[in-house]
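Hey,
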Amino acid sequence: MDAASDRRDEQQARIVPQLSVRRGRAAIEFYKAAFGALEDYRVGGAHDGEDVVAQLSIGDAAFWVSDELPPHRHFSPESLRGATARMLLVVEDPRSAVERAITAGATAIHPVSDEHGWRLGRVEDPFSHHWEIGKPLVPWPPDVPVRE
């Protein structure tokens, strides 16, 4: 295999996050209302108390939402008392997207401002996940050398 083949294989790879939550059905409805997410696939969650796993998408970006399963070491930020990752939602109008999320029940963490080449704000959703919502203000990634 040559370097070009390796690069093509890497370009086909994707990372699709999965958010662990309590109250999975409510989380799915929140992401639809707050971010305009579409529900692409769902297993379970038909009755109260039944665990749910769903794939949602916002534009071309997909992510999964599932009820936490502590026996499988799958915990929500509420159980951990904090999230271990942040989601970055790239949109054309960060201010209106942040406002929509807050109207749907998110809590403002940082107002939308311009810094480090981005227009960016941050909210915490009702399930304790943090979402940075913004867009790059310069061609991204910038043409700067990587520091080692």
